[in-house]
Amino acid sequence: MSLFARFAVPALKVICPAVSIIIVSDPRGALAQNQPDKALVQVGKARQLVSVEQMPLTEKHVQGYIAATAEVHSALETSEESVDKLSPQTIVKLDAVAQKHGLSDYAEYNRIGKNIGQVTSGVDEVTRKYVGRDALIRLRIARVKANKKMSEVDRKEALTDLNDQLQFALPPVQYKGNIDLVVKYYGKLPEGYYSD
Question: How far, in Å, CA of 64 to CA of 4, rounded?
Fold first, then answer.
């Protein structure tokens, strides 16, 4: 399991390290250009809302994002910096990678990734249909409970993780066309957009 912890970056990992499969952006660079993490805001006492700057995605966006991801990850892996504190030189390199693949810059790459991740957080990896994030978590809980092959320890850990994920809410997908587009490219998305 992997997605949400990667999206909400360091702040969410500190708040709830068990949270793991809801949304993504660039798995290594959700906070581009040294911006402070403003991804979490309190909603009531029990739920945290993860904000996403929504945008209508195009085929060009999704294709460019997919094409750029391996190079972006490679550049980040060879960098000595923390992902949320990139130097101007590293950002220039990442901007060049994004532009090479038809995107305006690394910030746009990240924004596209977050919008893709918002949709994939609600795509059932078994049926490859969009059901919504909370519905998908509840479906996964039912599958874990019904799985007779899981050890009791693994079942308890998985259920704890899934229930923890319900503590974080996402706004509804504003641009419904994003759902069809992301589902169309679901099998081509970078590793990390699928549950384990």
Answer: 22
Secondary structure class of 67 (helix, strand, coil):
helix
> Are 98 and 67 within 8 A, CB to CB?
no
Q: What is the DSSP string of 133-194?
A: HHHHHHHHHHHHHH-TTS-HHHHHHHHHHHHHHTTEE-PPPS-THHHHHHHHTGGGSPTTSS
Q: What is the pLDDT of residues 140-157, one digit of tens each?
A: 999 999 999 999 999 999
Structure tokens at 116: 């893709």
Instruction: Dig out the tokens for 175 from the structure.
Output: 């641009």
User: With 90 as the cut, is the pLDDT of residue 109 above it?
Assistant: yes
Neighbours of 113 (CB within 10 A): 29
Pseudo-torsion of CA 146, 182, 40, 37, nearest 10°? 130
The per-residue pLDDT for range 34-50, each reduced to its tens digit, is: 333 334 444 444 466 67
Q: pTM of the entire structure?
A: 0.73
Q: Side by side, which strands form the sheet with 168-169?
A: 40-43, 47-50, 168-169
Helix (H, G, I), strand (E, B) or coil at 50: strand
Angle at 140 between CA 50 and CA 167, to 5 degrees: 30
Q: Which helix (H) or strand (E) holds 108?
A: helix 106-120
Strand partners, 124: 129
